[in-house]
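Input record (one chain):
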Amino acid sequence: MSFEKTQALTLFPTFVWTHDLPAAQAQALNQHLEAAVLKLIEPRPAIPPGGMWQTHQDLHERPEFRPLVQLITQSSNGVLDYLQIDHAGFEITGCWANVTPSGSSHVSHTHPNNYLSGVYYVKTGPGADAIRFVDPRLQTRQISPRVKQHGPTNSDHALVTCPAGRLVLFPAWLQHAVPPNSSGHERISIAFNVMFSDFTRQMARPKWDGIKTPGSGAS
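The corresponding structure, as predicted from the sequence alone:
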């Protein structure tokens, strides 16, 4: 006896969306964003070994980051349309830059009280061009046999490559981390959160503060 038909059904998928700018547009935008970010963090405060510089979370309110806000809005609209979400509008609830020196990383975490999170990559390179996502299904670790070859169907994490000019969007509840920067230069990215307007007044705002910058209102 043999089966007439066999299928592998993809149920309850976890989506991660990538958006890539044309090379010429990315180069021009990234030069502008890099200059704006570096201006915000000077003079740089001391950070512990393995740490990074993070700005305050108000970049979406600053005119110099308006071109990026337009990209965030456009990509978020596309994702919500793809998911067929019925909503009355959304807002960026926090937007901040990360400047990661060589040797530094960022531990696995989520962005609570938001629906979508994302990152735009301003400056990357070999050894500093990936984001790591962790399988959210904790019960799959109950039995973990050896595998013949690791792949997307049997791994508990996945790496997404992040060249400069790429915007990545994902569910805010999805655990993610930044692998150690093994390149010889700084890595610059701009992270953000998106939430439905009705929820943004209190719950969705970040619970931490970055570098105090002029006009940020940071305390």
